[in-house]
Design brief:
Chain lengths: ~120, ~110
């Protein structure tokens, strides 16, 4: 069965960086993309961007351009999302999800990133 | 960028009621519209894709319709386990946008 397992919760200081991992299993990793979506406490869902696990092409939300980098390691079927220059409003649960072009169909369990001094 | 609106932002209904949520896109998105259910503390779950297609394993009381800019999501007979927030999501030009969500609870 398809599973996406994310790394554990993180606490970071403002200005620091965080890197969240997402290990995929149960399907051919390079046949799909991975989207990253975040959700601030009590708020809605915000799409952050997408990476092709086939060729590494990326497309980031304009709001995060320059601060976010998405990568994959096909040898371990793992996707990564790094966010730099963290601010308090980056505090959120970060989700990875399998991307099927026009939708995402399987989600990771989420990773809480807390930014606090 | 395409903006998504949803209404209502919340609703309260009785078990067995028919529940309808609407989602509007700021420009034509054809049928590139999906619906997700999110229960508290859980990841979202895909229910409806391409406006009207039921994802495998999702109960048939959930349905969707619409195209262009106006879309509707319906629960034909509300069940206690349907208490959740529902989000629409559009796809356009390699970008996703989610609606603000509709919180559904039991009256």
């Amino acid at each position: 069965q398809v599973q996406l397992v994310q790394s554990g919760a993180e606490v970071k200081k403002p200005g620091a960086s965080v890197k969240v991992s997402c290990k995929a299993s149960g399907y051919t990793f390079t046949s799909y993309g991975i989207s990253w979506v975040r959700q601030a406490p009590g708020q809605g869902l915000e799409w952050m961007g997408w990476i092709s696990a086939y060729n590494g092409n990326t497309n980031y939300a304009q709001k995060l351009q320059g601060r976010v980098t998405m990568t994959t390691d096909t040898s371990t079927s793992t996707a990564y999302m790094e966010l730099r220059s963290l601010r308090s409003d980056d505090t959120a649960v970060y989700y990875c999800a399998r991307d099927v072009v026009t939708k995402v169909d399987y989600w990771g369990q989420g990773t809480l990133v807390t930014v606090s001094s | 960028d395409i903006q998504m609106t949803q209404s209502p932002s919340s609703l309260s209904a009785s078990v067995g009621d028919r529940v309808t949520i609407t989602c509007q896109a700021s420009q034509d998105i054809s049928n590139y519209l999906n619906w997700y259910q999110q229960k508290p503390g859980k990841a979202p779950k895909l229910l409806i894709y391409d406006a009207s297609n039921l994802e495998t394993g999702v109960p048939s009381r959930f349905s969707g319709s619409g195209s262009g800019t106006d879309f509707t999501f319906t629960i034909s007979s509300l069940q206690p386990e349907d208490i959740a927030t529902y989000y629409c999501q559009q796809y356009d030009n390699l970008q996703f946008t989610f609606g603000p969500g509709t919180k559904v609870d039991i009256k």
